[in-house]
Design brief:
- The protein is mostly helical.
- Mean pLDDT is about 85; it is low at about 1-5.
- It has 18 helices and no strands.
- The chain is globular, with a radius of gyration of 21 Å.
- The longest helix is centred in the last third of the chain and has 42 residues, at about 360-405.
């Protein structure tokens, strides 16, 4: 047991956060591409996949129970097994006549398991490492989480495209992809069963009295809504990405749709590289650049410029919708610009939520913020497909530009600490 407690963090942190990022990529990004290739309409894809945000919206409601019952180590391993089972279910039901209904059920299982895994993994990270190691490894864990997203929306989509060409069978290609992923998560579960340490603080607390825990949880929850200007803050969190929440659902469909339908006619593999690989790299670089600049002058100084950097590049989709460029490198360049701006502006959004969460219950309050953040993505995404099909890609992307304006206006009414983000605030 003592050896397990002293397990080298390099043996479990990279794999744990890689496993944390992958399911989000499958549920929220890869599912959109898969359903498009399986000939669902844009309105169906946007509506159903947006509903899959719900587990991340309501995640704070059951996070206390992950703390109370069993150990976080137990929850991590169990959820990885559930995710593996859900992925196997998707693989087996893609070829069926009721594909949409059954795959959505398994995507829901993956989404709830993944959001619970997030709670347990982040808690375990704090229990399994000293404060010094927590600070040192935060960059490592974020890197592997990003790499998981890149794998999901980039490399796996490219592989799916290659399998589509190899077998000339879209259904078989995507079944193989999700079958491979199911095996991967079973391997993750068994690997972490042996490699995760056993922190002394990660005790089985199932004997705790629920009558004591629930009032404490409600107290923490209510304290969030007692923060100064909290209604304005919640409005900002919900609306800041109002335009981008619609864009992110429709952009993949626009790229994959035929030229006759107003799209760009990219293949699955071409989309996987442009949006999932190059786009993800530029998104990460934008986030790094945003963090570096805020560390010098603070969030208050940069937030409006970062918001503009996030929203103005959306114009490239208006241009592409009107011109439908066939030059692969030009499309790649436009997406790279837009994704860099998105990563740059998203940094300000995250930092604002961190600032808002400062105080006695910082972790719980940040979890509530992320719930509102997910809700702000879910609701606009739900109607984006219907809107696009009603007015076409050209008018839809013009609407997206207009939809970014409310988030910019709200910045003027926010109270931001002028020192927040400078030097010591950025890790």
């Amino acid at each position: 047991m003592s050896q397990m407690r002293k397990a080298n963090p390099w043996t479990w942190i990279p794999s744990l956060y890689y496993a944390e990022g992958l399911p989000y990529a499958f549920v929220m990004i890869v599912s959109v591409v898969m359903y498009k290739k399986l000939n669902l309409s844009n309105s169906e894809i946007a509506l159903y996949t947006s509903w899959l945000y719900l587990p991340w919206v309501i995640k704070p409601l059951w996070s206390p129970f992950v703390d109370i019952f069993k150990t976080k180590r137990f929850w991590i391993i169990l959820m990885q097994l559930f995710i593996g089972a859900g992925l196997a279910g998707v693989a087996l039901t893609i070829p069926t006549s009721n594909m949409l209904r059954y795959t959505l059920v398994f995507f829901w299982l993956i989404a709830f398991s993944s959001s619970t895994h997030d709670i347990a993994a982040d808690g375990f990270y704090m229990l399994g490492l000293s404060s010094h190691d927590q600070a040192w490894f935060v960059g490592i864990r974020n890197t592997f989480y990003r790499f998981a997203i890149l794998t999901g929306q980039g490399l796996l989509v490219i592989l799916a495209g290659q399998l589509e060409n190899l077998y000339n069978n879209v259904t078989l290609a995507w079944s193989i992809i999700f079958g491979i992923l199911a095996i991967l998560f079973i391997v993750f579960a068994f690997y972490h069963k042996f490699m995760l340490p056993h922190p002394r603080q990660d005790n089985n607390q199932s004997t705790l009295n629920l009558n004591e825990v629930i009032p404490n949880f409600l107290k923490v929850f209510i304290s969030y809504f007692n923060k100064p200007q909290i209604l304005m803050a919640i409005c900002f969190i919900l609306i800041y990405r109002f335009g981008e929440a619609q864009l992110v659902k429709i952009a993949p469909l626009f790229m994959l749709d035929s030229m006759e339908m107003g799209g760009l006619g990219l293949s699955t593999s071409e989309y996987g590289f442009i949006y999932g690989t190059l786009g993800m790299i530029m998104l990460t670089l934008g986030g790094i650049a945003g963090g570096l600049l805020v560390s010098k002058n603070g969030l208050k100084y940069w937030i409006i410029w970062m918001a503009l950097a996030m929203k103005l590049p959306d114009i490239v989709y208006v241009y592409m919708a009107y011109t439908q460029p066939e030059n692969y490198y030009l499309v790649s360049f436009f997406v790279a610009i837009e994704q860099f701006g998105y990563g740059f502006g998203f940094t300000a959004y995250l930092l604002y939520m961190m600032m808002l969460s400062e105080g006695e219950h910082k972790t719980a309050h940040y979890a509530i913020c992320t719930g509102f953040m997910a809700l702000g993505m879910m609701i606009p995404g739900m109607f984006s497909g219907f809107l696009q099909e009603s007015i076409g890609y050209k008018y839809f992307f013009n609407w997206v530009i207009l939809a970014t304006i409310p988030g910019l206006i709200l910045i003027k009414f926010l109270k931001i600490d002028s020192k927040f983000g400078i030097k010591r605030e950025i890790i």
